[in-house]
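Posted in: Structural Biology > Protein-Ligand Complexes

Title: Requesting predicted complex, NAP in pocket

I'd be grateful if someone could produce the 3D structure tokens for the following input. Sequence and ligand are given below.
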Amino acid sequence: MEDLGLKVDLSGQVALVTGASQGLGRAMAIALAASGAHVVAVARNAAKLQETMDAISAAGGQGEIRPCDVSQREAVDALIESVAEQHGKLSILVNNAGITRDTLLPSMSDDQWDDVINTNLRGAFLFTRAASRFMMRARYGRIINIASVSGLIGNAGQCNYSASKAGLIGMTRSLSKELGKRNVTVNAVAPGFIESDMTKALGPALLDEVKKRIPAARIGKPEEVAACVLFLASRAAGYVTGQVLTVDGGMIA
Ligand code: NAP
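-- Reply #1 --
Done. Output follows.
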């Protein structure tokens, strides 16, 4: 992982990242741990979560893995209770777990709609509801929801995904108003095209076309999204809430 040079002190804090087994979430977990946070890495695949944790440990960071399906309420509530009990705090939550099930509307099945909404939106709701109880009590918290430019401008073939990400942005804005008095900030990060399995699946020809629409003329790096998450997770970002930070090389500016 490239070190982009952003220095943030999160020592003594506990940060939970969903979807930390690969891609953007892995980069976020590594960046938060490198800044001193104890990272709780969540996803379904325990072996891949362990790979993230090995990378964190190899860099001198600390954390633990907690395999969990983010759409399952009882599992999420039990996980948060147990983390709060074990550590006495949970100050940073990154709702990053997300999936796509792309197809045009006429062929979109109920399952394709439900799977995306349940993972991307319900998962973030469940984690936020459970974690915010402890943050409100502590009068400190940082909640960061990973949305997408697709939630801002839409995308053909992604009505389920766009709806989930636009929903996350609405939830972010509403919760910033609910939780602000308790010193809990709630922000969203909306990545554009970032190097990942999700974008690799597009193939080189389509990616070349995409680059022509990006002022930065390149695909972003997971570290560049992680750096924005790091800033929003820091004490320094205490007066930033209810915002959507777009990380897309200028694509939708
Ligand atoms: P990815 O490589 O496909 O990783 C998705 C992560 O979510 C994995 O760790 C996966 O782990 C986890 N996950 C999926 N369903 C889950 C569930 N039900 N319960 C728990 N964890 C689950 O995706 P990515 O490209 O890193 O994207 C990460 C986030 O950024 C997503 O929210 C995505 O929508 C957003 N985003 C990405 C891009 C991009 O260009 N890559 C652009 C805009 C927005 P398991 O399979 O082990 O559960």
